[in-house]
UniProtKB/TrEMBL annotation:
Residue ranges of coiled coil: none
UniProt organism field: marine sediment metagenome
Taxonomic lineage of the native organism: unclassified sequences, metagenomes, ecological metagenomes
Presence of the UniProt keyword Lyase in the record: no
Pathway: Cofactor biosynthesis; tetrahydrofolate biosynthesis; 2-amino-4-hydroxy-6-hydroxymethyl-7,8-dihydropteridine diphosphate from 7,8-dihydroneopterin triphosphate: step 4/4
CDD domains: HPPK
Span of domain 7,8-dihydro-6-hydroxymethylpterin-pyrophosphokinase: 99-110
Sample GO molecular function, one term: ATP binding
Name under which the protein is recorded: 2-amino-4-hydroxy-6-hydroxymethyldihydropteridine diphosphokinase
Length: 144
């Protein structure tokens, strides 16, 4: 019997999300954990090399390790945003009084299906440099 294809209403549509990662609490360990989790729970399409950057805002903390990932997911945008916050929590993220303070992992959506969501792409090299590397690797581009 030949394989049956899904009816259009049963087909799963995958979205692409560009994610900015940042950590300055055991960053090498937390990067490995984040990549393991996201790589097992999403379709990992491309990753940048991590870069070390000085903190922005609150200065009394260690340097950050920053990178970017491109993933595909069947989740809708808000569900995926909630998923990223849940991954941060699984990695021990504590949200303190200092918004730009130290963190085990920060996962931010930069683009969704090629459309730029986060203006920090224009403001900060620690976002733009890894994102541009992922775009070059994957052959993708961003819509403003």
């Amino acid at each position: 019997m030949p394989p049956q294809s899904l009816a259009p209403e049963q087909a799963i549509y995958y979205h692409e999300c560009l994610i900015s990662l940042g950590s300055n609490i055991e960053p090498n360990l937390n990067f490995a954990k984040a990549l393991n989790i996201i790589g097992h729970e999403c379709n990992l399409l491309a990753t940048s090399k991590p870069i070390r950057t000085a903190p922005v805002g609150y200065q009394q903390q260690p340097d950050y390790l920053n990178a970017a990932l491109l993933v595909s997911t069947p989740l809708e945008q808000e569900a995926f945003r909630a998923y990223l916050k849940e991954v941060e929590n699984r990695l021990g993220r504590v949200r303190g009084a200092i918004k730009s303070g130290p963190r085990t992992m920060d996962l931010d959506m930069v683009a969704w299906d090629g459309k730029l969501l986060d203006e920090s792409y224009y403001q900060y090299d620690y976002v733009r440099t890894p994102v541009n590397e992922v775009l070059a690797i994957s052959g993708r581009s961003l819509e403003k």
